[in-house]
Amino acid sequence: MIRGAIFDVDGTLFDSMGAWHNAGYNYLKSQGVNADRNIGNVFFSMTMDEVVEYIQKNFHVPGDKEDVAKGIHDQVEDYYRDRVELKPGAMNLLNTLRTKGIPCTIATSTDRFLIEMGLDKVGIGGYFVGIFTTSEVGKGKSSPDIFRQAMHLMGTEAKDTWLFEDGLYSMNTAKAYGMSVVGVYDKVSHEDQGTIKEVADIYVETLEDLRVEDLQRWVR
Description:
Blueprint: E1 4-7, H1 17-30, H2 40-43, H3 48-58, H4 65-82, H5 90-99, E2 104-108, H6 112-122, E3 130-133, H7 134-137, H8 145-154, E4 161-165, H9 168-176, E5 180-184, H10 193-199, E6 202-204, H11 212-216
Parallel strand pairs: 1-2, 1-4, 2-3, 4-5, 5-6
Helix pairs in contact: 1-4, 4-6, 9-10
């Protein structure tokens, strides 16, 4: 059976990818930089440290790395504090997993303080036994390290652990590591949906379409 669940947050649990997708562009605009409106596509699979490094390498902006990171965070912090919302079906799924005694963790590229702020806003912090961020782990989701640490905390093996994710690159990492994947649609990843449907064990337009029984049928 499914013994553990790892959740991405932005685009999977939170309907927040739009805020992140535009954050780098909005920050550069605030600094008087005329960047490509679609630069969010470049930043999509990067950690915050990688985004900051890219901006400092390619654009003339004032301040050090901490100043750039803060400028980007300022673009989204008020969203997490006041306006973030759960995607449809997320609460029901978390309640079902809790009822069945299945531990859940978070694996995210977003900094911890923003995730915790958002979890407090929507009231689901208590559903997770741990939060793992790429900045704290030191590697992005192109490496399985973040999933390995989450599984260690839950006491699960890859073959019994499901990743809930909207990003293709993260799904590829999980699959290569032996995990099962639920691919969740998000409009920011729209162009990848064809490939996501091929990679994911289960694909859903919304978490409302998913039942834990669906996961049980996929157990190897």
